[in-house]
Fold:
Amino acid sequence: MPFTQNIIHRLRRCIAPLARQTWSLVSEQQLLHHAEWFRLYDHLARPHESLREPVPGLKRTYRKRTPAMALGITDRVLTVGDILRTPLIPIAA
Structure:
């Protein structure tokens, strides 16, 4: 499956309003909140198998990594509670 189709498939599977056949029950603002939550979860709390790295000295043992860990933003897999407790950064208007 090509990369973009894989992303769209994951979005549809994880965000219920995208899986619906009708858009009448969801507002655009709600959909944006769902998409942002999925993006945070996907990058901070969900380890990606393609980013795993081998543990030195142990065969067939890998350390799970998230995209944020691969970029050096965090040093561990965050939990949903960690994400929810993180204060929001105000954006200058």
